[in-house]
Amino acid sequence: MAEPEERAGFELPLLLFAGFRSIIDELHGELAAHGHPDVRPAYGFALQAVGRDGASAGGIGRRLGVSKQAAGKTVEKLEALGYVERVDDPQDGRRKVVRLTPRGTDVLVRSAREFDRIRAEWVASLGAERMAAMEAGLRAMAPASAFRLDAAGWFTG
């Protein structure tokens, strides 16, 4: 059996990022074509942080790993675009809860469908066995704590 080709260590994170970027760029092209031209990758993390039940700006900030103020700015952008709304907290009338609007739910549902479609294209291109092996390898190497919503904040700061 032949030895695997020697590669420079820096190439692995670049290839992983290039794969991630190609998926995200394709997703956002499709979202734009279906009525969501203003959605940015960081907004997806923020919408996930809002969740089905809504959250306070502070809670969103904690989930994203950013300050309450930074979360508030993102919420303002999402609110202006019609993806979230602020409503009175049913448990504490002094607080506001950020919750998804139907438009926000639509972008998340469309995103999930598009991720499934893109993955199916990768399976068709690479083959089911290679795809399963790649995913299994990534799961083995990435700790469970790597699946966090604060990825967007991690890139910027």
From TrEMBL:
<keyword id="KW-0805">Transcription regulation</keyword>
<dbReference type="InterPro" id="IPR036388">
    <property type="entry name" value="WH-like_DNA-bd_sf"/>
</dbReference>
<dbReference type="InterPro" id="IPR000835">
    <property type="entry name" value="HTH_MarR-typ"/>
</dbReference>
<keyword id="KW-0804">Transcription</keyword>
<feature type="domain" description="HTH marR-type">
    <location>
        <begin position="1"/>
        <end position="143"/>
    </location>
</feature>
<keyword id="KW-0238">DNA-binding</keyword>
<protein>
    <submittedName>
        <fullName>MarR family transcriptional regulator</fullName>
    </submittedName>
</protein>
<dbReference type="InterPro" id="IPR036390">
    <property type="entry name" value="WH_DNA-bd_sf"/>
</dbReference>
<dbReference type="InterPro" id="IPR039422">
    <property type="entry name" value="MarR/SlyA-like"/>
</dbReference>
<dbReference type="GO" id="GO:0006950">
    <property type="term" value="P:response to stress"/>
</dbReference>
<dbReference type="Pfam" id="PF12802">
    <property type="entry name" value="MarR_2"/>
</dbReference>
<dbReference type="InterPro" id="IPR023187">
    <property type="entry name" value="Tscrpt_reg_MarR-type_CS"/>
</dbReference>
<dbReference type="GO" id="GO:0003677">
    <property type="term" value="F:DNA binding"/>
</dbReference>
<dbReference type="InterPro" id="IPR011991">
    <property type="entry name" value="ArsR-like_HTH"/>
</dbReference>
<dbReference type="GO" id="GO:0003700">
    <property type="term" value="F:DNA-binding transcription factor activity"/>
</dbReference>
